[in-house]
Design a protein that fits this description.
Distance between the termini: 40 Å
Structural class: alpha+beta
Helix content: 25-40%
Number of domains: 2
CATH topology of the largest domain: NADH Oxidase
EC number: 1.6.99.3
Shape: globular
Number of helices: 6
Keywords: Oxidoreductase
Bound molecules: flavin mononucleotide
Pfam family, one: Nitroreductase
InterPro entries: Nitroreductase, Nitroreductase-like, Put_nitroreductase_C_bac
Radius of gyration: 18 Å
GO molecular function: oxidoreductase activity
């Protein structure tokens, strides 16, 4: 799979098969994150991989899912993630671009996972204090995001927006993700409509 294909076909997944992900594959995702662009090449990001069955439920309890779908968006028993990557900033590594660095690293994780057939959900709705305590994360680290992982147990498709950017599920359970049209976001040499 080439990079463009992965970018176009990757979609957020929130229902997962319960097969474990080999640790070496998870490690490959961190390797992809490690190689992401970084402001000043200062590389403040570190990554905690959680795949111990005893820890999964504790992490899950700190996360919120698919706000537009209400309870329907939350993975049920038997479809919860089988691993997580907790994305951290090491506060001892000076940087003026922490959020850009984190985001570039996460996108590498999502695309590399997709290329391996692994589904992902980038999660910002994290109870960070609770998760910090649960995972005994020391003070010199701050949790930025969590990436939930597992082999996909749902189909998600992209579509052009029709007046709303809210993702939705059809009667067959297919997840639809509206994206803005290219002609609405591309300004060629001058800003349109001005
Ligand atoms: C910064 C950020 C935070 C997000 N937080 C959440 C979240 O807390 N819970 C969730 O279910 N999805 C979350 N998502 C996933 C988005 O809902 C998803 O990317 C969006 O609906 C577009 O779908 P796509 O990833 O398939 O293109 C987040 C995505 C980003 C980039």
């Amino acid at each position: 799979m080439d990079a463009i294909e992965a970018i176009k076909k990757r979609r957020t997944i929130r229902r997962f098969l319960q097969d474990p992900i080999p640790f070496n594959d998870l490690k490959d995702l961190i390797d992809a994150a490690r190689l992401a662009p970084s402001g000043g090449n200062l590389q403040p990001c570190e990554f905690m991989v959680i795949d111990d069955a005893n820890l999964l439920e504790g992490v899950f309890s700190t996360l919120a899912w698919a706000a537009y779908l209400g309870q329907e968006g939350k993975p049920k028993e038997g479809e919860k993630p089988v691993a997580y990557i907790v994305v951290l900033i090491n506060k001892e590594k000076q940087t003026s671009t922490p959020y850009a660095d984190v985001s570039a690293a996460i996108e590498n994780i999502l695309l590399s996972a997709f290329a391996k057939g692994i589904g992902t959900c980038w999660i910002g709705s994290v109870q960070k204090e609770k998760l910090t305590q649960f995972l005994n994360i020391p003070e010199n680290y701050s949790i930025q995001y969590v990436v939930a992982l597992g082999y996909p147990a749902e189909k998600a498709v992209v579509e052009e927006e029709h007046g709303s950017l809210k993702y939705w599920r059809d009667e067959k359970g297919v997840h639809h993700v509206p994206k803005r049209r290219i002609d609405d976001i591309l300004h060629h040499n001058k800003i349109r409509n001005f």
